Amino acid sequence: MNASPSSPAPRASASPSSLSSSSRRPRRPRRAVTAATALAVAVSLATLALLPDGSDESDGVADGVAEEAVDGAAEEVATVDEAPGESVEDAQVQWLLALARREPGDPMAVGRHDAPVVLIEYSDFRCPFCGHFARETKPELLAEHVETGVLRIEWRHFPILGDQSDRAALASWAAGRQDRFWEFHDLLFAPSEERGSDDLADAGLIALAEEAGVPDLERFREDMDSTEAEEAVARDRAEGLRLGVSSTPAFLVNTTPILGAQPTEAFTKAIEAAATEAKR
Q1: pLDDT tens across 33-42, in order?
Q2: Cα 8 from chain centroid (whole Å)
Q3: Which residues contact 28 (CB under 8 A, 6 or more apart)?
Q4: What is the domain-level CATH number for residue 195?
Q5: Are the C-beta atoms of 74 and 41 separated by less than 8 Å?
Q6: How far is Cα 276 from Cα 212, in angstroms, rounded to an integer?
Q7: What is the pLDDT of residues 117-161, one digit of tens each?
């Protein structure tokens, strides 16, 4: 992850690294801090270096998103609102914490809305490494951290692998409108031998919605093709780009970036550190 054209930068690292956090309600950014721009470009380049083998299936789409993030960061400065006596770093931390929406009843989130730690996931349903996280790592995080009230997981749509990624994102949003987002999510991320490319065509997505238990398929079709769905997906993607996301999966654990489908231990370390910091 890298800093955004309009946001401060978490530091780039292949492994989690903690920033200090605060329990104060985050404020929205205003004052320009030009130093974050250089961090934006540097971290985005580091993200590109961390792209795992197999990303060439995007036909250059992921590279284009990365280039957009780097170019945008180079053109604009990050902004933070500094209170009197507050350091730039503290203001940046508040900006990062404010990315967690914490909306009660959010169909694309799991865990208490007031949990001390929020893991934001920027993901693409065609991304094999996102699927690995969904099948292998997420269940462990649910059992060990979400069910204990420490962690909340919030999904962000970040489709970068072509038209089918876009349609899958829109379809999952439509499923969420009928409280079936996570059931639909799990079916989309089923092992690849159980799913083919046809499943991400519209007919396949409708069939998956039925399998996921979406009660009103006609409404599902309408929601999937709605302007509201397009705006919701675009809003998530814009948030990721501001933060500097240029590949998937990418995560933010309170203020700590994690790039790629890292081992569960990397997430646990970041979650425990963030939970400890939140108590201060």
Answers
A1: 333 333 343 3
A2: 17
A3: 81, 95, 98
A4: 3.40.30.10
A5: yes
A6: 37
A7: 999 999 999 999 999 999 999 999 999 999 999 999 999 999 999
CA dihedral 270, 274, 276, 277 (to 10 degrees): 140
- Contacts by 179-185, CB closer than 8 A, 24 or more apart: 179/107, 180/209, 180/212, 180/213, 180/214, 181/107, 181/108, 181/155, 182/110, 183/212, 183/213, 184/208, 184/209, 184/212, 184/214, 185/125, 185/134, 185/155
Whether 117 is in a domain gets the answer: yes
Domain that holds residue 273: 104-278
Place of tokens 């985005």: 44
**221 Cβ neighbours under 8 A, 6+ residues apart:** 174, 206
Sequence-ordered alpha helix ranges (H) in the chain:
35-49, 61-75, 88-97, 128-132, 138-141, 163-176, 181-188, 202-211, 217-224, 227-243, 264-278
Residue 272 lies in a domain: yes
User: Which has the closest alpha carbon to 48: 60, 37, 38?
Assistant: 60
Domain count, the chain: 1
Preceding peptide of 139 cis, ω within 30° = no
